[in-house]
Amino acid sequence: MQITFIQGILVAVVVFICAFDKHMESFMWFRPLVVAFLTGIVLGNVQLGLAAGAVTELSYLGLLTVGGTVPPDPLFAGLMTTVLAYTTGQDVTAAMGLAIPFALIGQWIGIATNTLYAGFLPAVDRAAENGDEKAIGRIMFTGQFIYSFAFALAAFLSVYAFQSGIAAFVNAFPEWLIHGFEVAGGLMPAVGLALLLVVMLKGENVPYLLAGFVIMIITNCANILPVAIIAGAIAWIGYTKDVKESKSTAAPAYEEDFEDGI
Questions:
Q1: pTM of the model
Q2: Nearest to 105, CA basis, from 147, 72, 146, 149
């Protein structure tokens, strides 16, 4: 299916807002689940947006910026997974594999803008020396605007301007290659969860992981919501228990010994 000019503009606006939020990390709108959902609304296929956002979110769940490393961009991954599935008719898992180069575009934009920000530092230093808080705010806002505009421009070009060439290029792939992208896309959520577990999994959390795994295997539940509710209940029980223990083991208030002088 073709994306119209108006839809391309609306997608660019969505990406601009989400990229601006990514710079501040205030509402987490830059996550693939949100970006794909909003893109699905613009394209008139909310179900596709939710499906693309779900698999992409799982795949990019554990990708973290560590030190100087910059992972592939989750915003562009969620966007282009939805767009490629919409324009080429491929399954969302195959579209997610095809969207990896576009996630790298987002990565490159982030690296380029971070390098550009180094040129803003002298002006920030001068404003700080003069105590000009408004000037510092304007400089910071300018950097955020450049970053968001670069994302929006790249999104418009990828979604609308080059959509025919991208769709023709993808449709020219042989069936076995598309199947390979589909298999790779199906494996990526497992890799994303594994990366997340590397960061979060501790010895005391292993029993909960095993309990959730057994519940899913025994019940053969196609809906993960019941397991999520059970996990939330267990987390709440653990939280209240920790609060009570912290209150009971709190050090008593210091009482000073007084002497009457006799």
A1: 0.73
A2: 72
Residue 96's identity, in one-letter code, is M
Q: How many helices (H) and strands (E) does the chain have?
A: 12, 0
pLDDT tens, residue by residue, 182-203: 677 667 777 767 767 776 677 7
DSSP 253: P
CB 41 within 8 Å of CB 69: no
Which residues are CB-contacts of 191 (< 8 A; sequence separation ≥ 6)?
59, 62
Is 228 exposed, middle or buried (CB count within 10 Å of its CB: 0-12, 13-18, 19+)? Answer: exposed
> Distance between CA 11 and CA 224 in Å, rounded?
30
Distance, in Å, from the CA atom of 64 to the CA atom of 195, rounded to the nearest integer, reads 9
Tens-digit pLDDT profile for residues 42-51:
999 999 999 9
CB 23 within 8 A of CB 145: no
How deeply is 252 buried, as exposed, middle or buried, from its count of CB atoms within 10 A (0-12, 13-18, 19+)? Answer: exposed
